[in-house]
């Protein structure tokens, strides 16, 4: 409030004058100008503003600190997750039987080596699948009942009829086998009628499809390695065995010329790799394992 007063001395004294400014207006009239300034509200607003800015600064600084801590922890967590995944990938994989060989392809781990076997080829009942019997069996007790179904397997590949690429005479020799484990693989596929794998699949080994003779008891098809070898040096028709005959195509329902009549049937054992991809999201990362 601004006004012209006769005298300021009569208006205020002591603390009542703390916000009053007096100045001469006209010396002859001895008049004064009184300006009553209330700075309380201004001080309150200034205080509130300062407190607000301090709070904003603290919040911003804390957010930066917390974000840095979170980023560091996420980075450590992702590194731990990825290392764990890589470690687990060294353990997991696929297994397959390599028919006709005592060992595994390069890079694959040998689980055990053994002898191919199965049901006697003239039996009309019982199992039909081929077996890879380990060379260190844990034998059961002798039994008197009649139901023998596990016998050794012999090649039936004459020297003048052997498949292209097979280098030894295997006729009437016993068939070895190997159980192999390939690490960091997610799937296994046996492709009949091919000697190469499809895109994104890796060759474990290739060979020829074999099974029992058409008029004998049925057996599984086996993919016998192109570099097949005998189980040992014995070579004779020892009887009571599973037979591994080369097979050929028969056209009709099987479309030719897509296939070739009366031809050997190739086979290839393929595996696919396990890979890691990282999905990066705005606030964190997630690691997935997928099949390539």
From TrEMBL:
Ranked from the top, the taxonomy reads: Eukaryota, Metazoa, Spiralia, Lophotrochozoa, Mollusca
In its UniProt entry, the species of origin is given as Mytilus edulis
Q: What is this protein called?
A: Short-chain collagen C4-like
* InterPro entries per record: Ca-dependent_lectin
* GO CC list: extracellular space
């Amino acid at each position: 409030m601004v006004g012209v007063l006769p005298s300021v001395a009569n208006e205020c004294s002591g603390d009542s004058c703390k916000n009053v400014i007096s100045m001469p207006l006209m010396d002859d009239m001895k008049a004064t100008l009184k300006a009553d300034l209330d700075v309380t509200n201004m001080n309150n607003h200034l205080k509130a503003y300062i407190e607000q800015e301090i709070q904003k600064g603290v919040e911003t600084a804390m957010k930066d600190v917390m974000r840095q801590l979170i980023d560091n922890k996420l980075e450590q967590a992702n590194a731990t997750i990825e290392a764990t995944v890589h470690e687990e990938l060294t353990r997991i994989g696929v297994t397959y039987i390599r028919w006709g060989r005592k060992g595994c392809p390069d890079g694959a781990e040998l689980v055990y080596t053994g002898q191919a076997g199965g049901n006697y080829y003239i039996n009309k009942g019982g199992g039909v699948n081929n077996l890879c019997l380990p060379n260190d069996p844990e034998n059961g007790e002798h039994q008197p009942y009649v139901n023998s179904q596990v016998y050794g397997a012999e090649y039936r590949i004459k020297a003048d009829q052997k498949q292209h690429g097979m280098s030894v005479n295997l006729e009437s020799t016993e068939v070895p086998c190997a159980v192999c484990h390939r690490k960091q693989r997610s799937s296994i596929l046996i492709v009949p009628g091919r000697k190469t794998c499809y895109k994104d699949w890796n060759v474990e080994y290739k060979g020829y499809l074999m099974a029992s003779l058409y008029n004998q008891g049925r057996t599984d098809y086996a993919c016998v390695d192109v570099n097949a070898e005998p189980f040992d040096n014995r070579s004779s028709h020892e009887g009571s065995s599973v037979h591994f005959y080369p097979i050929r195509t028969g056209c009709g329902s099987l479309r030719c010329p897509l296939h070739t009549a009366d031809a050997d049937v190739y086979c290839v054992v393929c595996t696919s790799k396990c890979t890691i991809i990282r999905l990066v999201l705005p606030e964190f990362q997630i690691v997935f394992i997928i099949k390539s």
